[in-house]
């Protein structure tokens, strides 16, 4: 550890069991990769957190070979009831080391500790518990009496929910009898490497799970590897399209979970205070760096003024600051690059004539922070109404009739999620049938459950993760 300065306070570094160096996890062992090590930063300070080994093409080859061997010799032939025991063990270990993982996730990602503690970590554990239950019941999943695994699954994941996205990729793959090579995002590799420790602790046979940190190049090498049978990607639409082109004609099975520009629709009969809470949570949860964030508020004209007044008062109460403080509502943006993207798009919104309002909560002097921001007078043609900002920025549009609300909500190339706020159950169902979105929440937002399939339409991708439908991506049906 000598020669390395820890940026976070010593007590949080101790809770997170932070090491100065992290190594890749391949074939059941931690090893140095052939790539150039990267430095992961604490976005709340901009200072280094740890040095991380990265993979080169040679490491991708080694990891895929290890995964293939494990698939053929141990994991593939293992009865489902045995696989289930490992998944249950992993789920319990996530719970047991939950505090450590929550602090580590907050340090590496910048998200508020209360979100890491109450949402990311328990939801990741729940995903393993849920899929442990499937491992010996696949014959009852509706895909025939003996659905077979595909082989080696590659997972490439983003930085917004590092451990949860890992769980979404690894839990169903293992439950169905596949082995995995996972590439975490360059800016948030730490929880995935600690997950390697959990695999060791659970006694998982070597090669069943492999974690290769590195840049997008490692992701590209992994998905293109000829011995990979299945690819599951979550991230930007641009990279998703590139992967789809790479995989065309290879016969590899692919699922893509990409961007979004979700509408949160508030009708004039909605319980307003409840709707305001949902709208605020919908866009400011995880600093708005959520693919299904409710980044467009569509409010019925007759209640727009009242709702906006309540909204601004509520946003003004949000505390922006140190992500490790339990009272913080809005933490740090994950990277300087992401902060620059948000800043550019907000400048574009102002230049195009939208009215900007930002919270007056002071921002910390260092680190990557952005004030919760609400744009009024937004037109559908503006960039802030069309492009995924992936930051704490809400664009407000109004509508007169329910039909107009649906038309505006669907006026996007994306189709991942939507929200509807109304007192009338019939109106919620009417809207849900017309919204082109994989998930429609009624009188709530950003709720996740491992039993519910999640995924998009159009440029938000295809395939589902979670529930019975999510198993299909990992089975030869
Ligand atoms: P991406 O570039 O899509 O990154 C997602 C993952 O793919 C990361 O692990 C990344 O590695 C890897 N990757 C990059 N290029 C690749 C390639 N050619 N082949 C295979 N894998 C590759 O997202 P980003 O740059 O982190 O964020 C850019 C924008 O994407 C954001 O502003 C946001 O709009 C959107 N985004 C959406 C989501 C979701 S959940 N829909 C999540 C994150 C970002 P590196 O980490 O090394 O780049």
TrEMBL record:
Family to which the UniProt record says this protein belongs: Belongs to the aldehyde dehydrogenase family.
Domain of life, source organism: Bacteria
Keywords from the UniProt entry: Oxidoreductase
Residues at the active site: 257
Pfam family, one: Aldedh
Keyword field contains Oxidoreductase: yes
Lineage of the species this protein comes from: Bacteria, Bacillati, Actinomycetota, Actinomycetes, Pseudonocardiales
Residues of the Aldehyde dehydrogenase domain: 31-476
InterPro entries: Ald_DH/histidinol_DH, Ald_DH_C, Ald_DH_CS_CYS, Ald_DH_CS_GLU, Ald_DH_N, Aldehyde_DH_dom
Protein name per the record: Aldehyde dehydrogenase family protein
